[in-house]
Specification:
The complex is a heterodimer of chains A (134) and B (520). Chain A is 31% helix and 35% strand. Chain A is α+β, with helices and mostly antiparallel strands and 134 residues long. In chain A, strands 1, 2, 3, 4, 5, 6 and 7 form a seven-stranded antiparallel β-sheet that branches. Chain B is an alpha+beta fold and 520 residues long. In chain B, strands 6-8-9-11-10 form a five-stranded mixed β-sheet. A four-stranded antiparallel β-sheet of chain B has the order 2-1-4-3, with helices on one face. In chain B, a hairpin with a 3-residue loop joins strand 10 (482-488) and strand 11. Chain B has eleven helices and twelve strands. Chain B folds into three domains: 9-159, Beta-Lactamase, CATH 3.30.450; 228-340, Orthogonal Bundle (Helix Hairpins), CATH 1.10.287; 343-519, Histidine kinase-like ATPase, C-terminal domain (Heat Shock Protein 90, 2-Layer Sandwich). The chains are: A alpha+beta (134), B alpha+beta (520). At the A-B interface, helix 1 and helix 2 of A face helix 1 and strand 3 of B.
């Protein structure tokens, strides 16, 4: 094994080791908890009789979406964040809602809600604009 | 055969280095990535749990307006304490002292080490809920995971190295050592050794190929030895044969030398004998010819008896014939002894041929034979011994006339042999042809050999020594030319004399040369 091979292996090891840290800006655990709390408060504030009402543009019907669980993963989009919350409609079908949040005077507010629109988030992730927060 | 290589150069060490480095290069980053991802997930899970719990608690406090109801507020905050990450919580109005705290006795002390989350607990923002929590569980989990990861890496690394060492020993080292030992033994003792190893892997194939090669080499060596032995025997036989051959050659050479000396001696003796005898014979012969001529002419008185006069003529003619033979014998003897030389001078070809034809013509007329000759350029000359050349032509023409029956024809043709565009560059040719009975092809060599007589009725009836043609050939060869004889039975014979171009010229050229020489 020559020196060139050793150098190549070393570079590979270093690159692999630092790869996980090259994704997005880091948040402290407190900030993460604060973002999750802000989303929870937002979800609670939009509840009508315990469920979120959603006007489906496809069939023109208003559906009731019952909150089930919040995703622990936080995604970042430049200075903004994206969080997900799973809902379930009356028929038992899971409906994900993505909340796009921004920092505002030490607190966090939702500036866009994507109901059952995973295509938007997937496109942003594919373009590299949305990454997982470290 | 060299000794074992130094430790770092051993195949095993190199393999271990490659496997170890590759293993670490692949496994360490992989485990590291796994641990970091797991740690991040744990952190997100904790943040989500604390955040959601705190938010729900704050919403419950707000919904039930529990700010002034200590027991209700404690009941609403108590689920927070169920979380193991929870440290303390305080429900505060503005910057006032906490209205409600958990644990109730102390709330969140100043020196408490932990993380904090503060969220509004009323819609108007006057009340807020402050919760402190710890990430101790994450740290503990992370420490365990990292320890487990490092241990797993170490164990896997060691296992990989052991597997490499053991695998190398069984799969490579053992057959390699046997192969090496066999090669070393072959090198040391000079006899090829096979390797006792059976396996179906690549090393098995290598050993099998090596053994096959050894067997083939052994066969080849045996064949070579056999061939060498045969060669040695052949060489010995060849030596014997060579010696025998050399002995024979030496003996044969000695015999040939003796024979050559004997032949030379015989030839010399013959020449001496001929010269001596010819000289001794010519003296009395001249007396016989002279006296018989006097008697034939009746110089000292006419012979009374006509028969005596005829006898004296016969004696004179026989004497002349004998003298001619003796002269020819003398010429041959001189030429064979290498004592004859050419007295060269420029002579016209036309004059030479004309003289020869003129001398032979009476005999031809007497025998009723037509004598023809070709036209020759009067300026064409030869640089030859004119006496010898005339004798050659006379011999050839005389023979032709002698052996041609009456009514036949004898021709003397002269031609130049052209070469490279020059008419005389190829030399000059004299063709003496007749319409005689011809000579069988097997008799031609005899005709050119001295003292040989042809087996022919006509030749038998003619007088002659058989010396004329051989003597003519010798004289032509003295001039650097050739004499050839072609004959066909019942058709005729042609004798061709060729002289080289160096002996041919033109009178005008000779005169020009003389003029040029005179000018200079």
């Amino acid at each position: 094994m020559t020196r060139i091979h050793l150098l190549a292996l070393g570079f590979f090891m270093f690159a692999a080791a630092i790869a996980p840290f090259g994704s997005a800006s880091a948040l402290t655990l407190s900030e993460k908890a604060a973002i999750q709390a802000a989303m929870q408060r937002h979800v609670d504030s939009t509840l009508v009789d315990g469920s979120v009402l959603y006007l489906d543009p496809n069939d023109g019907e208003v559906h009731k979406l019952h909150p089930v669980t919040a995703h622990p993963m936080i995604l970042s989009m430049a200075d903004h964040y994206v969080l997900c919350f799973d809902f379930r409609d009356d028929s038992g079908k899971d409906v994900p809602i993505d909340y796009y949040m921004a920092r505002n005077n030490g607190d966090y507010v939702v500036f866009h809600t994507a109901v059952a629109d995973r295509a938007l988030l997937q496109r942003l992730m594919k373009d590299g604009r949305v990454k997982r927060v470290q | 055969m060299g000794a074992n290589p130094p430790f770092p150069r051993l195949l095993k060490v190199k393999l271990l280095a490659i496997v170890g480095v590759t293993f670490l290069a692949l496994i360490v980053p992989g485990i590291w990535l796994l641990l970091v991802t797991a740690s991040l997930a744990d952190e997100e899970l904790l943040a989500s749990r604390i955040g959601n719990l705190t938010a729900r608690t704050a919403l419950a406090v707000d919904r039930h307006a529990a700010y002034d109801k200590p027991f209700l507020a404690r009941d609403l905050l108590s689920p927070l304490a169920a979380d193991r990450a929870f440290l303390c919580a305080e429900l505060t109005k503005g910057n006032e002292a906490p209205a409600m705290a958990m644990p109730s006795a102390q709330g969140c002390p100043e020196n408490l080490d932990g993380m904090e989350i503060r969220i509004p607990a009323s819609k108007n923002g006057l009340w807020s809920l402050r919760v402190m929590f710890t990430d101790k569980e994450i740290r503990e989990t992370r420490q365990f995971e990292y320890t487990a990861g490092a241990t797993a890496i170490a164990v896997a690394f060691l296992a990989a190295l052991i597997a490499v060492v053991v695998g190398f020993f069984f799969l490579v080292d053992r057959p390699l050592k046997r192969l090496l030992e066999a090669i070393r033994e072959s090198s040391d003792c000079g006899e090829l050794q096979t390797v006792n190893w059976q396996s179906r892997d690549e090393f098995g194939l290598v050993v099998q190929a090596y053994n096959t090669m050894v067997e083939r080499e052994r066969q080849r060596e045996l064949t070579l030895r056999s061939v060498n032995e045969e060669l040695r025997r052949s060489e010995a036989d060849l030596g014997d044969l060579n010696r025998d051959l050399e002995d024979r050659v030496r003996e044969r050479t000695r015999e040939l030398e003796i024979a050559k000396k004997a032949a030379e001696f015989a030839n010399s003796s013959k020449t001496r004998f001929l010269r001596a005898m010819s000289h001794e014979l010519r003296t009395p012969l001249n007396a016989i010819i002279g006296f018989s001529d006097i008697m034939a002419h009746g110089t000292l008185g006419k012979l009374e008896n006509e028969r005596y006069r005829e006898f004296s003529v016969d004696i004179r003619e026989s004497g002349r014939h004998l003298l001619k033979i003796i002269n020819e014998l003398l010429d041959i003897a001189r030429i064979e002894a290498g004592q004859d030389s050419l007295e060269e001078e420029i002579v016209g070809v036309d004059a030479l041929v004309s003289e020869a034809v003129r001398l032979v013509k009476p005999l031809a007329d007497e025998r009723g034979i037509e004598l023809q000759r070709s036209e020759v350029d009067p300026e064409l000359v030869l640089d030859v011994d004119p006496t010898k050349m005339k004798q050659v032509l006379l011999n050839l023409l005389g023979n032709a006339v002698k052996y041609t029956p009456a009514g036949g024809t004898v021709k003397a043709i002269v031609s130049l042999r052209p070469r490279h565009g020059d008419s005389r560059r190829g030399g000059i040719e004299f063709h003496i042809s007749d319409t005689g009975r011809g000579i069988p092809s097997d008799q031609i060599p005899k005709a050119l050999t001295a003292f040989e007589r042809l087996d022919d009725e006509i030749t038998a009836s003619q007088s002659g020594t058989g010396l004329g043609l051989p003597l003519a050939q010798m004289m032509v060869e003295l001039h650097g030319g050739t004499l050839t004889l072609e004959s066909e039975v019942d058709v005729g014979t042609t004798v061709s004399v060729w002289l080289p171009a160096a002996r041919v010229g033109y009178l005008r050229n000779a005169l020009d040369d003389l003029k040029a020489t005179g000018t200079h």
